Amino acid sequence: MSQDTASFQDFKLNKQLFNAIDDLGYQKPSEIQVKAIPRILNGHDVIGIAQTGTGKTAAFVLPLLMKLKYAQGHDPRALIIAPTRELVMQVYENILELGKYTDLRTVCLYGGIGPKKQAQEVAEGCDIIVATPGRLLDIYSAGVLQPKQIKTFILDEADRMMDMGFMPQIRRVLELLPMKKQNLFFSATFPEKVEKYAYEFTDFPEKVEVTPETMTAELIEQSLYHVPNFLTKINLLKYLFENEDFSRVLIFVRTRKNANNVYSFIERKISEEVRVIHANKAQSTRINAINEFKSGNVRVLVSTDVTARGIDVEEVSHVINFEVPNKYEDYVHRIGRTGRAEHHGIAISFVDPSDVYHINKIEELIQKKIKVIDLPKEIELMDTLPSEKKDMEQEIDRQKHLENPDFQGAFHEKKKKNLSGKARDKAFGNKPKDKRRKK
Ligand code: ADP
Ligand code: MG
User: Fold this and answer.
1) Is the CB of 312 inside a 6 Å radius of any atom of ligand 1?
2) Any idea which GO molecular function terms this record carries (predicted)?
3) Whose CA, among 96, 174, 229, 402, lies 20 to 30 Å from 1?
């Protein structure tokens, strides 16, 4: 079955699901849906890899709903894990839409709000749980969750779930589940080093891959500017606001601190309604910010990578990498927030001298050169702040050291000679600079 000729009717789904698909206006299945849905219905373990915005959620939700059919018993029969609260809610909403003609009961578990109501919902009985791993384990500890009937285990953004930060929790979750179950992993990127972890969960997964994992969505026009520093980036941003048609723009930064900085600069210098989200914001604030952005009330959202993955906001016209991500897969996820579901999108990256290294790595990953645009003459070039300059120099030293372990830092070699790049990062983490010297 090729995608051109494929129709949802080719899948062994039921009337309730076909009707929901019609209501959503989906005309034909996407390629990943064509490849994954029959395999999942046949009971295989599946690793599904496809570009962002290509309907991976429905690729696992439809066959799941088909298999579960209707509300049954008290204990959940399927568990879907996703990395962020926002993504959990989004998958939950997809299940509600696609399952609207079924009576299946879905419960959503995530942190940031009290666990009481969520625990009660589980206690009342459900068929599907969608959860972040931390809150799932909390609810389990509270004693209300009986996981032994869970026969389908799904990881969305699977590579993120299997990275070092989450893997310990995922292992604990797995210990609670029955040995025999169907395992489904979905993501836009699935690096080889992560794939080996997948074999902790499953022996013979079928890997279905729609495009090479690193191919960035074709509908996204990518470009970059070389910009000397933070303040000049702000000027460039202001210029773009005045000269580009930003109908809905998502601005990515690396740290919470810079998220707040960029946010307040936009408010002050560009006087644009803007929202900011990062992991330190209260849950209600995060949800409100996303909802306002989704509804079009505000057209600018500044974010760290917590939202880079999976969040489906229709018609994001521009993604701006105010800072280049140093986890290179995140570039693919970030820009994948635009150009979704066959809309055209634009991704612009601001590259400072210490980012050049990272952007080269990203180009290797996506196997594509990103178009360089000259900084418009109107943009006032600002001086680099001393602290920023120092950070950049240190970062560039670190990069040189990564490429050549014999490299001895140009400036501060005596002080850091004995530390490898990693150890140095760790040692210097967030410590104030004068403390660094004593090391
Ligand atoms: P991914 O997880 O692959 O990044 P999503 O599952 O979030 O993508 O889907 C992206 C968008 O595409 C959603 O708005 C979804 O409703 C829509 N979509 C999913 N399947 C189809 C389809 N077959 N036809 C049209 N739109 C679809
Ligand atoms: Mg997704």
Assistant:
1) yes
2) ATP binding; hydrolase activity; nucleic acid binding; RNA helicase activity
3) 96
Short-list 335, 342, 280, CA closest to 306: 280
Cα-Cα-Cα-Cα dihedral of 210, 212, 214, 216, to 10°?
-60
CA nearest ligand 1 atom 5, residue: 55
Single-letter code of the amino acid located at 416: K
Is the CB of 30 within 6 Å of ligand 1?
yes
**What residues contact residue 141 under an 8 Å CB cut-off, 6+ apart?**
none
Q: Which residue has the tokens 């004693």?
A: 143
* Each residue's pLDDT tens digit, 361-370: 999 888 889 9
**Residues 213/365, Cβ–Cβ less than 8 Å:** no
CA–CA separation, 242 vs 58, rounded Å?
38
The distance in angstroms from the start CA to the end CA of the chain is: 63
Distance CA 324, CA 44 (A): 38
Sheet-wide strand order for 46-49: 106-109, 128-131, 78-81, 152-156, 182-187, 46-49, 206-209
The secondary element (H helix, E strand) that includes residue 283 is: helix 283-295
- Token pair recorded at residue 378: 């109107």
pTM summary value: 0.66
CA of 171 relative to ligand 1 center, distance in Å: 29
197 sits in which H/E element: helix 192-201
Protein residue closest via CA to atom 24 of ligand 1: 26
63 lines ligand 1 (CB under 6 A): no
DSSP label of 161: H
- Asked if residue 177 lies in contact with residue 150, where contact means CB atoms within 8 angstroms, the answer is yes
Which domains does the chain carry?
8-210 (3.40.50.300), 214-378 (3.40.50.300)
- Range list of H helices, 99-144: 116-123, 133-141
163 Cβ below 6 A of ligand 1: no
Element (H, E) at 243: helix 230-243
Question: Over the stretch 25-66, which tens digit does the pLDDT of each residue have?
Answer: 999 999 999 999 999 999 999 999 988 888 999 999 999 999
